[in-house]
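Record type: monomer structure entry
Structure origin: computed from sequence
Chain ID: A
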Amino acid sequence: MDKERELQEELVWNAGYRMKECLRMIKICLDQLTEEQVWQKPNESTNSIANLILHLCGNITQYGIASIQDLEDERKRDEEFSIESGYTKSELIKKLEDTISDAKRAFYDAPLKELLRKRNVQGFNFSGVGNIIHVTEHLSYHTGQIALYTKLLNNQDLGFYSGVNLNVKNE
């Protein structure tokens, strides 16, 4: 295997791993919340967890799928935040799972030239690699918000790393 393909596979595997971890954490959060809590907004300046998940699906599709596959950008960003119902917890998770799966496939299938090509997305100029990094960090950012809001609602540890010794030193 050539070094470029090896680097691409390493980048895509690590981005995919981080995305899978975020999905795992979001599922843990939703499992601890009621259907009503998922749509609840803490205040007028914040979004519900459901809106954040819809927002993540829109963002991942725009940056990670449409842009990298050179498809038409059909995102309606404002709708991600204005919807107030219409999805159950399981439907939200399925939508996010499918979106993440499609993005990971787009990352893996992209030819190297597509990962290096600069393109404008949402007014920003990134390469395909930049888009992969954006998708990964954006998903992580909102996963943290979802986790914090879940902790505030339930006043309990989420158990993301139950049974894992996080004090193990680097080798």
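Annotation 1: Residues 114 and 128 are 6 Å apart (CA to CA).
Annotation 2: The longest helix spans residues 3-31.
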